[in-house]
Give the backbone structure.
Amino acid sequence: MNNNLVEMKNIKKNFGKVQALRGVDFNIGRREIVGLLGDNGAGKSTLIKILVGYEKADEGEIYFEGKKVFFNSPKEAREMGIETVYQDLALVNLLPIWRNFFLGRELVKGAFLSIDEMKKITYEYLKEIGIFIRSPEETVFFLSGGERQAIAIARAMYFGAKLLILDEPTAALSVGETKKVLEHVMRVKEKGVSVIFITHNIYHVYEVADRLVILEKGVKVGDFKKEDVTPQEIMGMIARAAGVIV
Amino acid sequence: MEVKSIGSFKELSKIFKIKEMGAIIGFVVIFIVFSILSPEFISWGNLLSTFTMAAELGIVAIGITMLMISGEFDLSVGSTFAVVPMVLALSINNKINPFLGFIFGIFLGAFIGYLNGIVTLKTEIPSFITTLGSMMFLRGILLAITGGFPIMLQEDIPFLKYFGGVCIGGLRYSGIWFIILAIIFAFILERTKFGNWTFATGGNLLASKALGINTNKVKLMNFIICSFMAGLAGITTFARFKIIDPTLGQGMELEAIASAVIGGTFLSGGYGSIIGTFLGAFMIGMVRSGLVLAGAPAYWYRAFIGIVLIIAAIINTKIRKKTAG
């Protein structure tokens, strides 16, 4: 077969009478950054939820590294190396960085947490991939939105992600912070990880994406290599599909 | 020189960033005020008996702190505090093996927590409501069974000494239990996976779920811990008085919550400290004995606690903004 990391074939999903996905094919290559675009309600998040096991597809098949897979829960997907970073659900603001970094995957010695070791790894790993924090003990609340995204991305990387799914990672960020997050996304790719970048904003993803996929009303309406398309054309396509005349 | 003074300022501000700083300041202030008002306050005898009083409340407050950090609430601790020793007293008076009665009482305490938790988590009613209901239900059962009369222990049960008896001087075993349990739960909270998950569950429920933490299990466990501790605390009080009144523990839920809040725990979950609660309960004990020694009528106690609670909450909010936002 071919060398895609993920292949989703003919995915269909209905919620009652609403056809959220009407037979979508969606592939992600190795070391590829795919921008997944579309208006609200286009089916982006449903497609991703099916991929990571939050929802079950009514029809269709999913292949991961060439093998047919079926995830019952996000936990199972994570064990295979599919990590998702949600916009608001990534970190616990009241906890320090190191506790967030290892949350749910704590290092222990017997019954007790290996606190010093976790602090050290957190600090050093973040430094290694270019994220500088003052101290791993700093509470997440004091970090900027961009820093939080960066830490959540770093965490996924550290725990061996093969595919990183970013849900609107730049939606709430300033221009400068967006730029930084995009740099981190590029670095993720350099490490051999594939990325799905979900967004409304073509200008955020265009810079880093290899390929752009556009969904509209549960149908894939476009699948382009970046070289073959301009951001304006993509914008027009999303707007037209949503019924706006451009 | 300049550099050095900046360095020491940093050190100082680091100290002020300790979660329990508000509780420590409050503790020292109350201690000094009552020492001035009454010299007898700082006698060993008084401090130890104050600590014993604090212990019975404090054991309840430790449990409630765990539960509050995980984002839930328990108003039924005051009722559990009475029901558990009542079961023990009735067992002993009905010639059932006292040790068996003890085991049964403790088990019942944990079971009350289990029910509070299951009902709250399965039906998604706020725990405030569930436990308000169980508080009234349990108190009603208690009054119905006893007819409103106190129950006296009819025989001497040696092992009860290790719960409420005198250890050394004015220090009772309940004080020892309080210290041991505070240390154990401080460790559980700060240094185990379960503690980490407790903070995370109360701090950001959906993020915790997304990271694969079984938040319902964490909450249920804390409901059980909370009621278990309330029952155990009830036994220490019973072991001290050898008599149990069906109104025992009324209003205790609010004092336990006050101890936790004075100690820096958030009402909204995700943040708190067992050491803070320890100091909070001790503070409430100091206010109680301090006012008596200062010659104030007993009625002033609640008024004073109310003021302490509000001031502590204000200080804690300010400190929190520096430590946790």
User: Anything to note?
Assistant: Confidence is low (pLDDT under 50) at residues 1-6 of chain B.
